[in-house]
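cron nightly-structures :: item 1 of 1
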Amino acid sequence: MMVRRLTAEDAAIYREVRRAALHSDPDAFITTAAEFEARTLESIATQLAPRPAFVTFGAFVGSEFVGSELVGLLSLGREERPRLKHRANIFGVSVSPQARGQGCADALMRAGLAHARAWDGVTSVHLSVTERQTAARRLYERHGFWVWGTQPDAVQDDGGRALIEHHLSLLLGGAIA
């Protein structure tokens, strides 16, 4: 397995993997499959183009000689407003069902957290997970995140069903405030 930063040239494969994740596990994401499918390939390429405060990592499995397959995604964005620039946010984490259990999510988290630590002045990383995403929550907690709040009725699915969302933080200095 290999994890690397995705670029604009990865837009087509990113689109397919993200689309599959949104269809297979809609409760895990704020973005709906229909919303994402309305995006152009050009807008996705722009999203993946190098920017100082945003990065998307991809996990690939397979041999570089035979060809590797993109199976996992993680996006990391740094807040840019002066009073919030000490914070980074992880979102859009997914691993294809056939690649689960191979360490892809852990490798993506390590890459994302290493990148956040490399940003000068970033002291905390934040993310949210819906209550039903117990495996994702366990992943985040293994990497040192802790729940600081729970929001009822945070997200509603297409049928109006309310989902509870847990908000998690990781203080990069290691201490919990």
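cron nightly-structures :: done
The first strand starts at residue 2 and ends at 5.
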